[in-house]
Q: What sequence folds into this?
């Protein structure tokens, strides 16, 4: 194996995994170590890689030809696609050891910030060194970092809950919200809630929108109500309404009352619509501009980084007021049309209104048919007075057309165990 003799595992999190042809097949999410009955350090038997469709599989350490900070390369292009399942004598290094509170043989207390694995002359990988940061008072600077042999650390052999979240969060911080949500689903419930609570409000709001409903409810319930209301304020109104719909009405009312009135109002409006209609799946905050706004102003608005691609794909043109429910709806302009027009031109001169808008009561199958017919990324939703009340985007339609449990990792079907030509090895191959 062409690889450094010692590899710190936290630095591997998120590193791309390549087959022998140089094609990326996934990313590293953790390492699997096997506990031994003796005092010898745990043996590293493989890595856990995340593949497309959020499937996590086991990669035997014997099938890996190189490991470094930039890439993990496999020795074969065939993979065993069975979902990884940890065996009772196995340890997920990052998930279970990072942030664990331990004690050095000198008596100094601290927490684990990384673990190194090393390859022996015989080709066996084991957890040999632990990076431990000293525990200090809150007023003191960060404690000294010790890199010590595995057997000099007490508290690694038991799997209690004696740990914090800072170092695991550091490993997860660069993940996209959907990937972080996927990682949270792999954690035990208590650990998942602990890590979720340590995220800032905006980050947690993004992650909640990527989780199955039952996980959203459990995480929200683990927060105090004031914090839960703060997180709901950071969510898109349609996502917040979907989450609140999973709660009993009395709990909905409590959280809505704790939210800022201007944040709660659009959520309350969305909660009034029947499930499976345009009103229940739309966003109430599309990009809205008046007809006397210029093309340049419209392009500046859709460049705002907080907008999703589907929302930023078009501008809706209305009379004042410009917040939903708006003044009279006039039409919309796709961003491609904006790119073709002179920047000083007015939106009123390029607006398109030849497609009938949706009504809040339009059922989801009809929305899907019309968006597919006209190749639209979004459609306006208007009330009886032709006021814009929201927009249904293609991601809204997909989210509500897929099976209810599509975000749940346990709902993804596993590959047959007898697939010909798959890799095997380790406890999960």
A:
């Amino acid at each position: 194996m062409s690889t450094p003799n010692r590899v710190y595992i936290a630095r591997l999190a998120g590193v791309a995994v390549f087959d022998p042809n140089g094609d990326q097949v996934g990313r590293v999410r953790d390492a699997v170590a096997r506990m031994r009955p003796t005092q010898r350090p745990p043996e590293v038997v493989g890595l856990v890689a995340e593949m497309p469709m959020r499937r996590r599989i086991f990669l035997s350490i014997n099938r890996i030809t190189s490991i470094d900070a930039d890439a993990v390369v496999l020795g074969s292009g065939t993979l065993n696609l069975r979902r990884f399942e940890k065996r009772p004598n196995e340890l997920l290094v990052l998930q279970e050891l990072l942030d664990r509170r331990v004690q050095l043989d000198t008596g100094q207390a601290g927490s684990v910030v990384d673990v190194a694995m090393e390859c022996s002359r015989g080709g066996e990988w084991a957890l040999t060194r632990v990076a431990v940061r000293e525990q200090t008072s809150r007023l003191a600077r960060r404690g000294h970092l010790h890199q010590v042999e595995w057997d000099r650390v007490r508290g690694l052999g038991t799997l209690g809950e004696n740990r914090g979240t800072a170092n695991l969060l550091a490993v997860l911080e660069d993940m996209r919200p959907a990937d972080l949500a996927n990682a949270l689903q792999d954690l035990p419930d208590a650990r998942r809630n602990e890590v979720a609570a340590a995220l800032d409000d905006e980050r947690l709001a993004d992650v909640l929108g990527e989780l199955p409903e039952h996980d959203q409810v459990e995480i929200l319930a683990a927060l105090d109500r004031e914090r839960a209301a703060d997180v709901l304020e950071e969510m898109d109104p349609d996502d917040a309404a979907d989450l609140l719909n999973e709660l009993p009405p009395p709990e909905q009312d409590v959280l809505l009352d704790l939210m800022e009135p201007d944040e709660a109002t659009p959520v309350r409006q969305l909660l009034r619509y029947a499930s499976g209609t345009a009103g229940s799946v739309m966003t109430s905050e599309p990009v809205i501009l008046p007809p006397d706004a210029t093309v340049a102003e419209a392009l500046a608005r859709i460049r705002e980084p907080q907008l999703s691609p589907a929302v930023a794909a078009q501008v809706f043109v209305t009379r004042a007021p410009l917040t939903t429910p708006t003044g009279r709806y006039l039409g919309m302009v796709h961003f491609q049309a904006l790119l073709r027009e002179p920047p000083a031109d007015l939106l009123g001169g390029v607006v398109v209104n030849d497609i009938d808008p949706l009504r809040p009561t339009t059922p989801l199958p009809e929305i899907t048919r019309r968006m597919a017919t006209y190749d639209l990324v979004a459609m306006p939703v208007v009330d009886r007075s032709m006021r814009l009340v929201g927009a249904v985007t293609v991601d809204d339609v997909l989210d509500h057309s897929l099976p209810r449990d599509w975000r749940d990792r346990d709902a993804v079907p596993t590959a047959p165990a007898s697939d010909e030509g798959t890799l095997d090895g380790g406890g999960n191959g």
Notes: The longest strand covers residues 24-34.
